[in-house]
Amino acid sequence: MYDYMKGQVTAITPEYVVVEVYGIGYQIVAGNPFAFSASEGKEAKVYLYQHVREDNITLFGFQTTEERYLFKKLLGVSGIGPKSALAITAAGDATQLINAIEIEDDVYLTKFPSVGKKTARQIILDLKGKLGDVVTSEIPHFTPQKEITDGLNPQLEEAILALQALGYSERELKKIIPKLTEEIMTSDEYIKLALKLMTN
Length: 200
Prior knowledge:
One of its GO terms (cellular component) is Holliday junction resolvase complex. The protein has 200 residues and is an alpha+beta fold. It has 3 domains: 4-62, CATH 2.40.50.140; 65-127, DNA polymerase, domain 1, CATH 1.10.150.20; 146-199. It is built from 9 helices and 5 strands; from the N terminus they run E-E-E-E-E-H-H-H-H-H-H-H-H-H. Strands 1-2-3-5-4 form a 5-stranded mixed barrel. Helix 1 (65-75) crosses helix 2, helix 7 (154-165) crosses helix 9 (187-199) and helix 8 (170-180) crosses helix 9 (187-199). The longest helix has 13 residues, at 187-199. It starts with a strand and ends with a helix. Mean pLDDT is 83; it is low at 136-146.
């Protein structure tokens, strides 16, 4: 799995950009390839998502980890494929998109390509309450913000990291941390208890 690529942007087309790294040109599909125009002929850092199908391997590129995180979340929604997810992340402001999901504004969501009312409702159902941290933190390595782990023991810190890697938000974790600090446990035990608390 690739995390990012740093190289010279040698071509920009309506569908993809080409980034040359050590003499190899990588074709990277982007929602808005022309967003990389300022980097044409220069070195750029492109965050990647590798999508593998039986007959094709595609690299999707993003300017920020925030865009990539939203893309991956949207991919998990039933009825949303890579092209639709890319269109949504490229065309929509992240804050507006998250707000629309939180207030269940399916009219806003149906403005995106290939998103009908049924798919919009599915997006809301699957993602409401799960994107609150996207705008304020860049998430890809799931490093918790300082206030979450400040004063916690190393085992609990490791557990919080693992839970964030599973997709639990800062808001969800903040609710259960006070209960986790009542006892000293191994990281594995903390995780099991946390999962139990969040599913009850």
